[in-house]
TrEMBL record:
NCBIfam families reported in the protein's UniProt record: GGDEF
Gene source species: Nocardioides marinisabuli
Superkingdom, taxonomy of origin: Bacteria
SMART domains (UniProt xref): EAL, GGDEF
Domain EAL: 235-489
PANTHER family assigned to the protein according to its UniProt record, in alphabetical order: BIOFILM ARCHITECTURE MAINTENANCE PROTEIN MBAA, DIGUANYLATE CYCLASE DGCP
InterPro entries hit by this protein: Biofilm_reg_signaling (IPR052155), EAL_dom (IPR001633), EAL_sf (IPR035919), GGDEF_dom (IPR000160), Nucleotide_cyclase (IPR029787), Rev_trsase/Diguanyl_cyclase (IPR043128)
Pfam families per the UniProt record, alphabetical: EAL, GGDEF
Name of the protein described by the UniProt record: Diguanylate cyclase (GGDEF)-like protein
Length: 498
């Protein structure tokens, strides 16, 4: 315009530098030291879609967020701070998806217990190095504590985030070499996506953690996504109600299903099966609430409560059937938790029960958890408890359990296979092979889910040791077992020999 002159280029540059300096000073006072990463000739558009002209400010850590001394990684405070900034930018721009990955290591406790904490520290340092190698611009990997890590990931869509989770799993699944020893300490990952699974960093962290434990309980997948949002809300409400029921103790009930010897007909044991007397929905069967319990912290106290009920009832159970055992199902998440062995030992002491009275029924866990679970099962056997693998022959459980877990002294053939005996020759051949393989290792075989006399007679001819199912008796409260036992004693010989 007339009368105005263009400012010299040097003045413009000086003003820009002064403005940038003021911004940095404000940031230093608010957040502490930063690294400033400017665009370069090699990466002139590295911030496109996010910060197209603002240099990247990356937190180095301060007094309120110290670096982890072992791994050099930031912690939870940095995750929440940077996570909020990334989520806000994602919502404003709409150009990218943001996810949060939570991971922990299967078998890490076994490394500490067998090789020492120095070896464990080397494993953690290597896991941290591999995790940070996967960081991209504006992402952040942190150590949450122990063997648990988290990472903010950014991608174009959900599929891109899932590919990032798979890539991280592959990188972390490679063996770690410590003092010429090759260790497999594989991770379980949970991925939560912003705007789909949760909207805040704490909520993303929580649902990713639930998905991670779901992956840990799975025999196949090393990473998982959470339930859909609507199902997740209902699931969390159900979990909260279940936790309240566990704390109160009165709504959680235990029913018992009998197990009988295939030759003498004697009652040899009872399986404790949980029920929930819901104040609004009535008596709920396990399939109504156990899946959500297994995805959350509820499964651990629920297992402890069922164990306590079963061991407290064992005096009456053994009065009805002298020498019988009581079996309790233990989920993969409970097996991989830190307290199962201590809980079992404490409850045995408290109730005065003999360890041989207790059978712990497990599903074969994920192959990546083999080492840790093997150590737990051996400890339970040393304590004097019996270990049984249920659902044997299903897609989740295989013959490998017989040689991987020497503590296993009993298998229960999966009901889906048992029900096909007499109708499907392949099912009969499979049952015969399982019975022969188990007996070759001196392992007892129970057919679970028998509903017809013909099935019992065919499996008995194969050498099956014991039977359980509705043909014998349904799960029932303790107070109804006396009548059932009396009736069974009157008819057992004729029913088995017919």
């Amino acid at each position: 315009m007339p009368g105005l002159t263009e400012p010299p280029a040097a003045a413009v540059t000086a003003a820009a530098v002064l403005l940038l300096g003021l911004l940095v000073l404000v940031a230093l006072r608010r957040w502490g030291p930063f690294v400033i990463t400017l665009p370069t000739r090699e990466h002139p558009q590295r911030h496109r879609g996010w910060w197209p002209w603002v240099p990247r400010l990356r937190r180095l850590g301060g007094d309120d967020d110290p670096r982890d001394p072992l791994t050099g990684m930031p912690g939870r405070a940095a995750l929440e701070s940077q996570g909020r900034a990334v989520l806000a930018r994602s919502e404003q721009s709409g150009c990218c998806r943001v996810g949060l990955v939570v991971l922990d290591l299967d078998g890490f406790k076994h490394v500490n217990d067998t090789l020492g904490h120095d070896a464990g520290d080397q494993v953690l340092a290597e896991v941290a190095r591999r995790t940070r190698s996967q960081e991209r611009e504006h992402e952040l990997a942190v150590r949450l504590g122990g063997d648990e890590f988290a990472m903010i990931v950014i991608g174009e869509d959900d599929a891109a985030l899932e590919r990032r989770a798979s890539a991280l799993l592959d990188v972390l699944s490679a063996p770690v070499h410590v003092d010429d020893v090759s260790l497999t300490v594989a991770p379980s990952l949970g991925l939560a996506v912003h705007g789909v699974d949760a909207r805040t960093v704490p909520d993303l962290l929580r649902v990713a953690d639930e998905a991670m434990y779901d992956a840990k309980s799975s025999p196949s997948a090393g990473w998982r996504r959470p339930l859909p949002a609507a199902a997740g809300r209902l699931g969390r409400q159900l979990r909260d109600e279940l936790l309240a029921a566990i704390a109160g103790g009165e709504e959680v009930r235990v029913h018992y299903q009998p197990q009988v010897d295939g030759w003498s007909g004697a009652v040899t044991g009872f399986e404790a099966l949980v029920r929930w007397q819901h104040p609004e929905h009535g008596l709920l069967l396990p399939e109504s609430f156990l899946p959500q319990a297994e995805r959350s912290d509820a499964i651990v106290p629920l297992t402890r409560l069922v164990l306590a009920h079963a061991l407290a009832d064992r005096t009456e159970l053994q009065r009805l059937a002298p020498g019988c055992s009581v079996a309790v199902n233990v989920s993969a998440r409970s097996m991989l938790g830190p307290r199962l062995l201590d809980d079992v030992a404490a409850l045995l002491r408290h109730t005065g029960a003999s360890p041989s009275d207790l059978v712990l029924e497990i599903t074969e866990p994920a192959p990546r958890a083999t080492t840790e679970v093997r150590g737990l099962l051996e400890s339970l056997r040393t304590l004097g408890c019996r270990v049984s693998v249920h659902g044997f022959g299903s897609a989740q459980t295989s013959l490998t359990a017989l040689w991987q877990y020497s503590a296993v002294r009993e298998i229960k053939i999966d009901p889906a296979i048992v029900r096909q005996v007499g109708a499907d020759p392949e099912a009969e051949r499979l049952c015969r092979a399982m019975v022969n393989a188990a007996h070759g290792l001196d392992i007892r075989v129970v057919a679970e889910g028998v509903e017809e006399a013909e099935v019992v007679h065919r499996l008995r001819a194969m050498g099956c040791d014991a039977f359980q199912g509705y043909w014998l008796g349904a799960p029932m409260p303790l107070e109804e077992l006396g009548d059932w036992v009396g009736q069974w004693h009157r008819v057992s010989a004729s029913r088995l020999d017919r």
